[in-house]
Amino acid sequence: MLQRLVSGACLIVPFFALSGCKGDSGPAPPPTFPVTGKVTFKDGTPLVNGAIGFTSAADQTLSIHASIKADGTFDDTFTVLGKQRVKGAPEGELDVRIFPPQGADQSSYEVSVVPTKITVKAGETNHFEFIVQKK
Length: 135
Fold this sequence. Notes:
Elements: H1 2-21, E1 32-33, E2 36-41, E3 51-56, E4 63-67, E5 73-74, E6 78-81, E7 84-87, E8 89-90, E9 92-99, E10 111-114, E11 117-120, E12 127-134
Parallel strand pairs: 2-12
Antiparallel strand pairs: 1-8, 2-5, 3-4, 3-9, 4-6, 6-7, 9-11, 10-12
């Protein structure tokens, strides 16, 4: 009897595991395009190891992110839509947010950024320069 229960469970568990994965991906992400750039302070020194985030003006559910490297550049932009993550950013106007790195004590500071909006265009080089200032 116990052997029959174990055998039945071995057949049912994989079925539920596979069926739970189907359809979890949500809607298809929009076409995306590479976005690169550099973040510096007014004096030209780079913002080191922070992050940059963008929000689509057309679709607030899209979250676009990139890590800022030690030289102030970013090139690993990706878009998150639900559980999906795709390389690049969607075409259109994006609001810009800069996140300075946190210190060892988890402290940080706020910055203002110029420009505050960018426009990503299909088929073009989407390279943007941002200037930040501590608030």
